[in-house]
Amino acid sequence: MDKTLKLALGSIAVGILVLGLKYLAYKVTGSIALYSDALESTVNVATAIAAFFAIRWSTTPPDANHPYGHHKAEYLSAVLEGVLIVIAAILVMHEAYKGFIAPRPLEAPLRGLLINGAASTVNAIWCVILFRYGRLWRSPALVADARHLWTDVVTSAGVIVGVALVPLTGWLQLDPILATLVAVNILWSGWRLMRESIGGLMDEALPEETLARVKELISANAEGAIEAHDLRTRQAGRVTFVEFHLVVPGTMSVSESHSVCDRIEGALRKGVEGAIITIHVEPEEKAKHPGGVPVV
Ligand code: ZN
Ligand code: ZN
C-alpha cells in the first residue's frame, strides 16, 4: 500500500478515537461547547475517510474511460466534506440556541475536561506527525489535513479554558456562547474548503505568480521560436495542465521545432510540479506579435 494511504488510514483511526473521547467528555458534562467540539471531530473523521478515497482514486493512472487521469476526485470529496461541515455547524447552532433558552449547570466538569484534554493531546501528536511526513513526501493533501487538525487543537484548547470558567464563574450562558463560536469557526473552514475545491472543479486558471513563472520559463527556453500565444492553464489536484501555441519560422523542420518543444516541456516540468504540457506548433504567419518571443 502507498505510504500516503497508510497515513490517511492512520488519520481515520485517530479521528475515531478522538471523536469517541470527545463525545464521552460531552456525555459526562452535558456541555454544549464540548458537544460542538465532538461534532467538529465527526467532520474530521468524514474528512479523513474522504481523503483516503481521494488519494486512492486520484493516484489511479489514466485509463480508457478517464484519459486525463482521476485527479479531480480530490475536489469532489472536498466539496462533500464542505457540505458535511456546514451540517455540523447547523447542528451545533441548534444546540447552542436551546442552551441559551434553558441554561443548565455542567455535571462533572473536571472529569469531562480531562477526557477532552486527553483527546486533544492525541490530536496534537498526530498533527505533528502529519506535518512532518506531509512536508517530507510533498503531499499537499497531508499538509492541508495537518493544518486543519491544528486549528482543531487550538479551538479545543479555547473550549477547555472556556468550559473550565463556567463552574468557576457560575456564568452558565458562557457554554452556549462558546459553542456558537466553535460553530462559526466550523462554518468558516467549510466555506474555505468548498471555495477552493469548486475553483478546481471549474478549471480556474493558475494563481498569478505560478502563471508568471510559466510564462517566464516558456520565453526563456523558446530559442528559435517566434512567439507563444493562447496560453491556457488549469489545475487538477496535484497536476497542472499547460497548453499554448508556439509560432516558429515556416521553414523550420518538424524535428527542429519538436526539439524546441521538448526543451520548453523539460523546463516547465522542472519548474512547475506535476506539469502536463501540450504545445501546438504554427508557422510565422500565425504570429500575433511579431518580434521577440513574447508569451501572450
Ligand atoms: Zn495560434
Ligand atoms: Zn514529442
Detailed description of the structure:
The structure is a single chain. With 296 residues, the chain is mostly helical. The protein is built from 8 helices and 3 strands. It folds into 2 domains: 3-201, Cation efflux protein transmembrane domain (Alpha-lytic protease prodomain-like), CATH 1.20.1510.10; 208-294, Cation efflux protein, cytoplasmic domain (Alpha-Beta Plaits, 2-Layer Sandwich). The protein is 68% helix and 10% strand. Strand 2 (239-248), helix 8 and strand 3 (275-283) form a beta-alpha-beta unit. Helix 1 packs antiparallel against helix 2 (32-58), helix 2 (32-58) packs antiparallel against helix 3 and helix 7 runs antiparallel to helix 8 (254-271). It is elongated and about 85 Å long. One zinc ion (ZN) binds at residues 229-230, 245, 282, 286.
State the order of secondary-structure elements, H for helix, E for strand.
HHHHHHHEEHE
User: Judging from the principal axes of the Cα atoms, what is the shape?
Assistant: elongated
Total count of strands: 3
Structural class: mainly alpha
State the helix count. 8
Runs with pLDDT <50, length 5+? none
CATH superfamily assignment of the largest domain?
Cation efflux protein transmembrane domain
Work out the radius of gyration: 26 Å
Helical percent range? 55-70%
Which strands sit side by side, in order, in the main sheet?
1-2-3
CATH architecture of the largest domain: Up-down Bundle
Q: What's the rounded overall pLDDT mean?
A: 87
- What is the percentage of strand-forming residues? 5-15%
What small ligands are held by the chains? zinc ion
Number of domains: 2
**What does the main sheet amount to?**
3 strands, mixed
The end-to-end span amounts to 44 Å
The CATH topology of the largest domain = Alpha-lytic protease prodomain-like
Report the oligomer: single chain
Which CATH class of the largest domain is shown? Mainly Alpha
